[in-house]
């Protein structure tokens, strides 16, 4: 129906538009009248008709930056608008539901996940070596494992004497791990292809131990541009490190009596060898929290700035040049996870109150925007390649896909497991692999990577 025709009380005048990646706008040539009873499906039919698409595609619709989850009528009533209002609807390709792909068994609870995509590395004699996508996990059995995207364990690394709580790739052959044994380990693995896999899967080594924390090291973050590492601990402190050991001062060797208390013979042998490994102290220590630190992250645009969250209910901003806390925002709940959303200047925090909170670190007060849907602690958050989307993992046994422009989850991922009350401890997203989640069911689960862009 054209704009020159008369509308009825059951219709409203709208204009559709979309944005390119460079933020340029593309609008429908003229406003049109549409029924107020339309929801996403009916609106998608109209847009497909306007675009003259050969294969109809599903779309999401936004009004004033908020995703439309109801019909037009309910939106008008909720916002006190009449059918005489003129609405501008932004449309964008809908995210398809993530499908279950596979689930890989592990020996114990999986507490942390990281991933890295395929890369081209310089080999010997000027050759280029291609690496495939890999998944790095830390487990409650103290073992660090590297899976390929088919679920085969390529590398197993023993060294931690207690559960591993956080893992991060530096490169396909270097990574960092930390855990309840208070240690942070820098690892080197020689695995490039299947031919390089050692028969006993003990195909890597710790080349530096980062020693400072007096309790569980619960979280790590990495800035590849500056080669800096942040660690957060249950001793309430945060430490700043380098991925290059020679940039840090040496420490005294580990006490062998502590080493030999390990119950595992293999771990005991490895731990004895730890006495010969370089032990390094932090470049700086950040003290201000009054309870366990649960999340740390570098600022996406300024490597001299970092953020942290803690069970003391606070979000803190740190100046890494001076090692000082420059801002503290108080909340009403323990904060258990943290992720920075790329290009959005937004921090997402998971809480003990079961919701996800969105904060602008530049704002003078804590923002109150919340994502609601989990029914237990939100302990893990992961960003995607879409500025508006993130993944969450919770002790309620689910992972959820969110668009921050709506306060309800787009999709919920349940466990493909026989264990009815399993908890999700870790989530991660990788374009070449998909949505990864893991927890107390001892499984690494992969769901398809929805088209986030």
UniProtKB/TrEMBL annotation:
Ranges annotated as spanning the membrane: none
Function field: Component of the NOP7 complex, which is required for maturation of the 25S and 5.8S ribosomal RNAs and formation of the 60S ribosome.
Name assigned to this protein: Ribosome biogenesis protein YTM1
UniProt-listed InterPro entries: NLE, WD40/YVTN_repeat-like_dom_sf, WD40_PAC1, WD40_repeat_CS, WD40_repeat_dom_sf, WD40_rpt, WDR12/Ytm1
HAMAP family reported in the protein's UniProt record: WDR12 (MF_03029)
Any GO MF annotation of the entry: ribonucleoprotein complex binding
Per-repeat ranges for WD: 157-187, 210-242, 286-328, 371-412
All residue ranges annotated as the NLE domain in the record: 12-76
Gene3D superfamilies: YVTN repeat-like/Quinoprotein amine dehydrogenase
Organism from which the protein derives: Pichia inconspicua
Presence of the UniProt keyword Disulfide bond in the record: no
Compartments, record wording: Nucleus, Nucleolus; Nucleus, Nucleoplasm
Record SUPFAM superfamilies: WD40 repeat-like
A single Gene Ontology CC term: nucleoplasm
Keywords: Nucleus, Repeat, Ribosome biogenesis, rRNA processing, WD repeat
């Amino acid at each position: 129906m054209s704009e020159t025709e008369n509308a009825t009380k059951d219709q409203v005048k709208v204009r559709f538009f979309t944005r390119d990646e460079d933020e340029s706008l593309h609008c429908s040539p003229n406003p049109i009248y549409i029924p107020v009873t339309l929801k996403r499906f009916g609106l998608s039919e109209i847009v497909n008709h306007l675009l003259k698409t050969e294969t109809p595609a599903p779309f999401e619709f936004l009004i004033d930056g908020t995703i439309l989850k109801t019909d037009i009528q309910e939106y008008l009533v909720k916002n006190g608008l009449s059918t005489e209002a003129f609405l501008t609807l932004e449309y964008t390709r809908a995210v398809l539901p993530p499908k279950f792909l596979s689930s890989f068994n592990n020996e114990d609870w999986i507490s942390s996940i990281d991933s890295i995509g395929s890369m081209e590395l310089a080999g010997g004699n000027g050759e280029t070596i291609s690496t495939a996508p890999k998944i790095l996990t830390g487990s409650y059995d103290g073992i660090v494992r590297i899976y390929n995207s088919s679920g085969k364990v390529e590398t197993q690394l023993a060294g931690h004497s207690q559960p591993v709580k956080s893992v991060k790739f530096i490169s396909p052959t270097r990574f960092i791990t930390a855990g309840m044994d208070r240690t942070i380990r820098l690892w080197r693995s020689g695995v490039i292809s299947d031919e390089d896999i050692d028969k006993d899967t003990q195909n890597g080594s710790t080349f530096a131990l980062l020693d400072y924390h007096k309790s569980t090291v619960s979280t790590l973050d990495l800035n590849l541009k500056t080669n800096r590492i942040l660690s957060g601990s249950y001793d309430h402190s945060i430490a700043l490190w380098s991925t290059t050991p020679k940039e840090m001062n040496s420490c005294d060797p580990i006490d062998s009596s502590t080493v030999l208390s390990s119950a595992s013979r293999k771990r005991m042998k490895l731990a004895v060898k730890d006495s010969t490994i370089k032990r390094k102290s932090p470049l700086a220590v950040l003290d201000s929290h009054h309870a366990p630190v649960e999340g740390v992250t570098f600022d996406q645009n300024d490597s001299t700035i970092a953020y942290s969250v803690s069970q003391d209910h606070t979000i803190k901003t740190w100046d890494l040049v001076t090692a000082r806390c420059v801002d503290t925002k108080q909340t009403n709940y323990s904060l258990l996870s943290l992720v920075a959303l790329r290009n959005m200047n937004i921090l997402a925090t998971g809480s003990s109150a079961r919701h996800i909170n969105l904060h602008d670190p530049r704002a003078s007060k804590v923002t109150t925007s919340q994502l609601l849907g989990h029914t237990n602690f939100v302990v893990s958050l992961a960003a995607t390649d879409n500025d508006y989307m993130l993944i969450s993992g919770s002790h309620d046994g689910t992972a959820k896909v969110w668009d921050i422009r709506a306060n309800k989850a787009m999709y919920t991922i349940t466990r493909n497991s026989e264990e009815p009350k399993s908890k999700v401890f870790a989530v991660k997203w990788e374009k070449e692999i998909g949505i990864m989640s893991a927890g107390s069911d001892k499984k690494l689960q992969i769901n398809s990577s929805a088209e986030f862009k």
